[in-house]
Amino acid sequence: MHAQAKFEHAQTRIQEGMSEFFVRPMVAELQMINKDCQEWSFNIFPGVSLSEISTAMLENAKANAAFKAAKLAGADIILGATFYVINNEKTKGLDVTVRGYPAKYVKFHNYGEGQLGTDDSKWIDPLQNGARIRAISVDNKQNKAVGNENRNK
Questions:
Q1: In this predicted model, what pLDDT tens digit does every residue of 86-121 receive, in sequence order?
Q2: Which conformational region is residue 45 in: left (phi greater than 0), alpha (psi within -120 to 50 degrees), or beta?
Q3: Residue 93's closest CA among 59, 61, 69?
Q4: C-alpha to C-alpha distance for 87 and 124, rounded to whole angstroms
Q5: What's the superkingdom here (predicted)?
């Protein structure tokens, strides 16, 4: 004799829970710490010969120097940063000079909120619209370039 096993099955409509995050834009002002242009120099990648330094490493060296300059200045950002980079023949690596204006972020507020946010749309919306137009223009140019490449084959 075989004992009968019990089996039960049920099905229901399943609604997947959807979770998305929407981040409200944050607006801040930049306050210059010093009105005069400042200059900092650093040796980045000491001991690494010039032949071993790639373009990616050069970009990393500039970012590294900008970070160090901001930290030394007590700043959040270096405005208008320009870079001068030269290989160091003695210690190797790159000597990176950063020039710019140290600044801190101040007066944080949510977009459009409170007294500080009353004028946000007057200046942010045109900037966003301009950025969208430039992005569309770049996409169109890239699409045309790809189309021309395919026609030339």
A1: 999 999 999 999 999 999 999 998 888 878 778 888
A2: left
A3: 61
A4: 41
A5: Bacteria
Instruction: Enumerate helices (H) and strands (E) in the chain, giving the number of each.
Output: 2, 4
Q: Are 106 and 75 in contact (CB under 8 A)?
A: no
User: Between residues 150 and 94, which one has the greater pLDDT?
Assistant: 94
CA distances from 59 to 31, 39, 90, 96, 144 (A): 26, 18, 22, 11, 30
Q: List CB contacts of 57: < 8 A, sequence separation 6 or more.
A: 45, 48
Query: Which two three-digit tokens encode residue 106?
Result: 């101040």
Per-residue confidence band for 38, with pLDDT thresholds at 50, 70 and 90: very high
Domain boundaries, the chain: 26-109, 112-144
